[in-house]
């Protein structure tokens, strides 16, 4: 039974857009949305991540309304697929309450449309119009909120236009049955269910994630957190709309995931050691690095030329570093650190070491030369510290999930080859700047129309492709401009707020360039460390120990959070990274001593 819509006046129907789309509503027009007033619960509606619920206050009409709450990477999208008549004009309307509430229609066969309101307050009516394509028999209408916003409300949602009616029209499919879920790795789950007669596709729903559409009675869901229970439901879809959800099925992914680097403590301290150069901080011999440091990144391996892929590493010359140890002493000290449970990696790049693997020859040279360094010094793995113009995205490369830019594709291939060569204990870390990661929430590459900095978000495809191999990501929360967080506010360096907001993005996930169909999935907490300068001399954005502790308290204990509201609490956050061990010694070991005091080291 379709719900009457007495609140739609003749004036409302005569809006300019509707008249432009086609003739005004006639007597044969009808409201085609089922349960648009939510008087019978969520019947007919599917809400992402279990975000929707029916409430009795506030309401606009009747006794019920929809309340939908964004959480993490989910924008609380509630939708319904409706049967329509081809080549016909329709008007979509709803009453909403809240900030950044959207109303829209997809699959129109012409131009998909939407309307939105930015400001909270009293009920507001959103309206939009469209014409269906010559072969369009169904459209999906939806409402959703926005990331970092409070719950929003929707009521009296209608789609008014010609009723396709008549016999022979498709019927709503039944809910799928027999859903099973099986974890196939630490980051993926296989789903299967019984096929539904008359269904043309299926939609997989998972708490906290955007719906996944598939055409067969099975699906593989990837990008999941390890050692976590994930719950799924499935609906069947045809031209008549979307069925009720199936009974839930859950699976628990095994712990550990990929990533290698077994043996790191639950909370690790990562530092860069100036081994190939000297500066104002002074040279520190490997044997003199304190036991506080769990991962020691040797700075730096650098290419013979920007595009050669041929990486070389040497100890600091005696003329530059009078107290440098011999190669034999250095290698012996590396073995001693490893015997004490520490990891020693070669870090490639740095501020001056631009690396562009633009060709397969450069890719292969990278693999062989990095492998030689690892073998010669007996190292545990690789740190990727590509900065400057090492990574940028080619025009038209707009999807981080399927990159096409050679320097990105070749880097991913090279690292996977090294991982396969050295096996599961290979330690892989990355130290991108915020410009290459968190800025991707707003901008990605040169953008769909060009004109943006092509380096924006350029690390995202690398991180995503290697997430099952990644041991640690420690973004440099320094030497950074202001960056927008998931609260859609800009955050600046130097205080706890910046580290909280930037880390929350990695542990929550975010839509890339605002595209809700392209969400960068959250990393595991054990894969994430916060990168900071050790002293005011080490880099812009130094954070005092008290502020560092506030950031750790907020992210791991949900205290000292200030004005920023995180999307979770992660006691398993791996730890801290600093530039650098040398600068920390210069500063009286303040950084590492504070870490030890906080985590009881």
Automatic annotation (TrEMBL):
PROSITE patterns noted in UniProt: FN3 (PS50853), GH18_1 (PS01095), GH18_2 (PS51910)
Ranges where the GH18 domain occurs: 267-601
Pfam families: CBM_4_9, fn3, Glyco_hydro_18
Keywords for this protein: Carbohydrate metabolism, Glycosidase, Hydrolase, Polysaccharide degradation, Signal
Enzyme Commission number: 3.2.1.14
Claim: Signal is one of the keywords in the record: yes
Signal peptide per UniProt: 1-27
Biased composition (Polar residues): 243-253
Alphabetical list of PANTHER family matching this protein: ENDOCHITINASE
Protein name: chitinase
Organism: Streptomyces spororaveus
């Amino acid at each position: 039974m379709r719900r009457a819509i007495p609140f739609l006046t003749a004036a409302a129907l005569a809006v300019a857009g509707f008249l432009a789309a086609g003739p005004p509503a006639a007597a044969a027009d009808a409201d085609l949305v089922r349960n648009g007033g939510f008087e019978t619960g969520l019947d007919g509606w599917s809400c992402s991540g279990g975000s929707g619920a029916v409430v009795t206050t506030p309401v606009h009409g009747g006794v019920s309304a929809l309340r939908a709450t964004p959480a993490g990477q989910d924008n609380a999208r509630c939708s319904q697929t409706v049967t329509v008549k081809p080549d016909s004009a329709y008007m979509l309307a709803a009453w909403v309450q809240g900030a950044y509430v959207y109303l829209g229609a997809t699959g129109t066969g012409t131009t998909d449309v939407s309307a939105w309101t930015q400001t909270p307050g009293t009920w507001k009516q959103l309206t939009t119009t469209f014409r269906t394509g010559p072969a369009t028999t169904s459209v999906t209408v939806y409402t959703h909120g926005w990331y970092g916003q409070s719950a929003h409300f929707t009521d009296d949602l209608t789609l008014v236009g010609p009723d396709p009616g008549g016999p022979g029209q498709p019927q709503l499919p039944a809910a799928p049955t027999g859903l099973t879920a099986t974890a196939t790795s630490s980051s993926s789950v296989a789903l299967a269910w019984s096929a539904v007669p008359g269904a043309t596709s299926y939609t997989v729903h998972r708490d906290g994630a955007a719906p996944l559409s598939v055409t067969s009675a099975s699906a593989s869901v990837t990008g999941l957190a390890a050692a976590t229970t994930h719950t799924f439901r499935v609906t069947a879809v045809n031209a008549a709309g979307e069925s009720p959800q199936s009974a839930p099925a859950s699976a628990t992914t095994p712990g550990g995931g990929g990533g290698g680097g077994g043996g790191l403590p639950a909370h690790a301290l990562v530092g860069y050691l100036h081994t190939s150069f000297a500066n104002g901080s002074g040279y520190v011999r490997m044997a003199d690095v304190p036991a506080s440091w769990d991962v020691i990144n040797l700075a730096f391996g650098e290419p013979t030329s920007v595009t050669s892929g041929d990486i070389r590493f040497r100890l600091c010359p005696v003329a530059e570093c009078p107290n440098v140890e011999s190669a034999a002493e250095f290698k012996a000290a590396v073995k001693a650190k490893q015997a004490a449970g520490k990891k020693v990696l070669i870090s490639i790049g740095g501020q001056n070491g631009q690396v562009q693997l633009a060709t397969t020859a450069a890719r292969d040279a990278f693999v062989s030369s990095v492998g030689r360094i690892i073998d010669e010094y007996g190292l545990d793995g690789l740190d990727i510290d590509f900065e400057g113009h090492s990574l940028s995205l080619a025009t038209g490369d707009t999807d981080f999930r399927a990159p096409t830019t050679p320097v990105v594709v070749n880097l991913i291939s090279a690292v996977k080859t090294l991982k396969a060569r050295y096996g599961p204990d290979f330690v892989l870390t990355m130290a991108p700047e915020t410009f290459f990661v968190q800025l991707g929430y707003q901008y990605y590459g040169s953008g769909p129309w060009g004109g943006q900095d092509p380096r924006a978000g350029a690390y995202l495809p690398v991180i995503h492709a290697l997430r099952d191999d990644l041991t640690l990501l420690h973004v440099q929360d320094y030497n950074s401009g202001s960056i927008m967080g998931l609260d859609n506010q800009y955050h600046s360096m130097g205080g706890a707020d910046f580290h909280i907001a930037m880390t929350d993005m990695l542990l929550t996930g975010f839509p890339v360039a605002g595209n809700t169909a392209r969400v960068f999935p959250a990393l595991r907490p054990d894969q994430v460390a916060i990168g900071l300068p050790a002293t005011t001399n080490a880099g812009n954005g130094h954070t005092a120990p008290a502020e560092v502790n506030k950031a750790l308290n907020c992210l791991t204990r949900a205290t000292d959070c200030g004005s920023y509201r995180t999307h979770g609490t992660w006691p398993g956050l791996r730890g801290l990274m600093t530039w650098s061990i040398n600068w920390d010694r210069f500063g009286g070991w303040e950084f590492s001593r504070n870490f030890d005091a906080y985590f009881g080291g």
